Structures are given as C-alpha cells and as structure tokens.
Amino acid sequence: MDDPYEDRSMPADTGNGNYGADDLIDLENMKPPEIDYYAVLNLSKTASEDDIKDSYKRLSRIFHPDKHSDPALKEAAETKFHVINKAFEVLSNPQLRTAYDEYGEEGLNTKWEVGHRVKTAQELREEYSRLAREKREMELESLVRNKNDITINVDATRVFKNQEIMSPFGGIAFAKTSRGSILDPLKRAEIMQLYMKNSFETQFGPRTQFIVGGQMTSRSGMSGGNVVGTIRHAFSDKLNVELGSSLLKPRVGVLKATYSIDPLTFITGTAQVRNFKGPAPLVMTFGRRITKGATGYMTYRTGEWAIGSWGPVLERRRDFSSMALGVSSQDDNRAYQVEVQTGLMQSHLSLDHTWTLDSATKVRVGGSLSTTAGINASIGGDRKITEHTKVGLAVEVGLSGGVAFNIKVKRLGQSLTIPIVLAAEFNPKLAFWATVVPICAVTAIDIGYVKPKRRKERAEKIQELRAVHADFIANQKKEAQEAIEILRESTDHKTRHEQEKDGLVILEATYGNLDAAPELGLSADVTIAVQALVNNSQLTMPGGHSKNHILGFYDPCLGEKKQLRIKYEFQRRLHQVVVADQASVAAPVRSLAGLTTTITYNN
C-alpha cells in the first residue's frame, strides 16, 4: 500500500527516518515547483470542459479586480486573476492542455508542429510524444554512449581448506597451520579467468544506431578476443531489426528481428550464422501480456539442425533443440520470473523473485532444478550507494556445483563483476556463513553509519534549501495571505449560510508538517481557503497534485512531506480528516456512531 502521507513532489521517505541513496536533495538541480493550473482551478486532470468553465466562473466572481475597491486588495486580485486566466487559457485549449499534461510549462513554451487542430486528445498526445521522442533522438545523434563490462573469476577454494602436501611415507598429509598473518590464506586464491567487453553506441538518424564492441578472454595463460559491429534499425513502430557480425576469426553473423503484432503481443526471431555447412540455429520467441504487469512467453530453440545432408549429423551436434514456457512480471514493488524448459539434452525449472525494499534496495531469491546441473539456489541483493553507483552481493549454492559468492559494482554503464568460487563441492557450513556474514556486515554498516549520515545530510540540505529559496517562500506566503484576505468576505458569508442550514462548516484546517511543533512555523492555517472550496455543503479537493498551488495555500515546509488536516462540523457533528499532500478529499463523511470521526485518506 502506498504511504498515505507521501508527497510525490519531494524525494520519498523510506520509513522511520531512513532514506534511500537517491533521497538526498540536489540543491543545484532542485528548483521551486512550477505552478499547477489544475490546483489553481481545484480540478482533477480528468476534468471536463464544463468543469473547467464552472471553476473559472466561480473564481472570477471572487478574484476579478473590479470586485474590490480597496487598493491593496485590488492589486492582489489582479495578480491572482492573471494566474486564473492563464490556467483557464491552457486547460480550455485541447492542444495546450495536452502539451501541458505531457511536459508541463516546457510544453507550453515549445513550438510543436502537430498539424490539424481537430484531432482528439489521445491523437494529440500520441503526436506530441512522437515529436518529443524524435527531438530527443536527434539531440543524441552526435553523442556516443560507452559501456564497459569486466568479469574477474576467482578460485578461492584453497583458502577455506587445509593445504595438502605429499607425505614422504606415501599418500597425502595436511600441512600444519603456522602462525602467520590472518591474510596469508588469501594468498592461495587465484584468478581463473578475466573477461572484458567494451562497446560504443552512436546514433545515425532518428531510427538507426551503430554499435561497435570488443571482447577479450584470458584463462590459464591463454587469451583470445574479437570485434563485433552491429546495426540496429527501426523500420516502423512495430518492426525492429539488428544485424551484427564479428570482424575477426572465428566469424559469426547474427540477425535479430522483433515485430509487435499489437500493443500486447510480440514475436522475436534470432539467427546465428557461423559457417555455411548447415542451416543457421534459430531462436524464436512469442510473447503476450497476460495481465497488467505480467508477460507470458514461449521460446523455441532449434539448436544445430540439418536439411537432408546439409548440416551436421546427430552425433556431431553440440547444441540441441528445446522448448521453454515462462511468465515474467515487474512492477515498482517486485519482479518475478518462472520458466519451464524441456529439451533433448537438458531440461530445467527455474524461479526467480525480486523484492524492492525501498528506493535504493532490492533483494533477490532464485532457484533451479536441472537435469544436468541438479539443484541450485541463490540469494542476493543490490543497493544504490550513490545517485549513479549500485553494489550487489549474491551467494549461489549448488548440490553438484559448490558454493560461489558474487560481487557486482555498476556505475554509469560501467560494470565490474567478481564471481568467487568458495568451494568446488556442496558445503552447507560454508554456504551458511557466506550468506550470514555479508548480510550482517552490510546491515551493521547501513544502520550504524550510512543511514545516520544520510539523515544528517538530508536535514542539512533541507535547511540549506530553505535558505537558498527564502525569498521564494516568503513571496509564496505573502501571496497566500493576500488570497485569504480576498476570500475572507465571501467565505464569511458562505460560513453563515452553512451554519443556518446545519451544513458543512470548516472549524480548522492546517497544512504542512503536522508533526512539527507549531512554533517552528512548518504548518499554515488554511481554514478560510478550504471553506472557500465548499459548495452546497460539499467539499471536493481532487488529488494528483500538491495542494500548495491552491489559492490561499503555500508550502510552509519546503523539502518535507506535507499533510492537510481538516476539522469540520456537519449537521452538528464533528469530523476530522487527515490526507496526504497529493491525496483527494471528499467531505462530509457521515459517522454511523459517535460524535467524532477521524478519516485518513490513502489516495
């Protein structure tokens, strides 16, 4: 369930004051939020044309400058009326509204050539998306993207067992343990294999990319490598084709094509050509979205095959056919994949599940049952330690494959992976400690150092943020107070009318950080602003945008989560609601029993 107090205009709090790696505020890039025209008119993003007109007329009757004789109020009303007019101008124009919905103020300031004006909102949205995508692609045309992967395979099996020596009396004896450095056993570890892969990608036109990559492998004093060039082209929104080939021996050519039958269904085919002594091995996948977040797929691999006498005979084939069925799913909170494969030489069942603990941490558990590799299990996780750096740890255990510990570091397209083989055979004791020790160490460092450091940095950055934008905050507060003074007279009349018919009367409304002490000034009194939104004993505040953009509101705690607490009376009964900043409000809420009802809205 989503956090009911989540303020999506600010970095997310992961709970209990513990913040993810990407939750720290970047003062250099963070700017005060742009005005939200939907909030100005107190509308949802699905508001109809009639809703927009009605809201505009209602606000115009209050904020039109001609309605005020006091010079100060007249000047303030002119400013507010200009904002109301701008909001109506944007939201009542289908083209401007679509551009604003997609790209905010930037969409209004960009010239879009979207052709005919009588297109539907959906057609306009699709065309804006296409134009924006092509614009971004053209901007990237001259840029080159670099990816680098390094894998270092380490054999540490001798580190965790006694060293064997030949006995002069025959047989094998174990060397006595000498009192040396605690790091001496680590000297027995050795690098089994080094693998490096590097690729450069550049844009040729809006639909074509060219990738050139090199790879190198070194093992036991022997090494080899190759260079691969690939051209990727999108013939249409439905068809994408890749053509690649190695430039050195052994030469291998790859052709891959993906075709989208409809928005839910796709087909992918891959052919790999090593020589012309037989047909190319093929891999064909058919996939379809079966639920909102899950996709089912079926993959068939031909392996090496023959047409008559053209192709290898059965006894000389190294790759055989197989069929796999699977389901994969991914959303913000978890991801999983289940696959069943049956083949002539190898069949398996595999399961993989990943949980997102917070915005910076993921935990993964997997397992497989194979006719060739037996039973294998793995557990691991990764954590974002800076904005662009992620570290992952995992333990893999196989009944026939031993115990391995993996370390992976990723940063801006660069990846370093270190698989460490701890035991060549299954060792439950080693598997247990290889899992427990890293988890305990990482948890202790995270709780004892990383999270307290982040909390301190966040508090310091929030204070600095408020200092940097002090003038903006003061101006927003001044404008909110001016709006409240403009609303005061009409609201007093509305309140008396509601009291006469035992209708909806706002007794108190507070917006901001409700947990902070009042003397800190991190909350604001918005009673009049909320009462002004009451119509015919009904209060409706659509969600989906921050409430600090509503006329009479402002952000009293920039950089922190905000809530709105409303205490009101309806038909001589007291009620209270507490909502998140971007949650919707609908009142009154009738109580079935008692005189006081407290409601917390989740969305």
From TrEMBL:
Top-level taxonomic group: Eukaryota
Any one Gene Ontology BP term: cristae formation
Primary location: membrane
Pfam families: DnaJ, DnaJ-like_C11_C, DNAJC11_beta-barrel
InterPro entries: DnaJ-like_C11_C, DnaJ_domain, DnaJ_domain_CS, DNAJC11-like_beta-barrel, J_dom_sf, Mito_inner_membrane_organizer
Transmembrane annotation, as ranges: none
Biased amino acid composition, Basic and acidic residues: 1-10
Residue span, J domain: 36-104
Keywords assigned by UniProt, alphabetized: Chaperone, Membrane
Subcellular location: Membrane
Region annotation Disordered: where it falls in the sequence: 1-25
Single GO cellular component term: membrane
Protein known as: J domain-containing protein
Source organism: Linnemannia hyalina
Species classification: Eukaryota, Fungi, Fungi incertae sedis, Mucoromycota, Mortierellomycotina
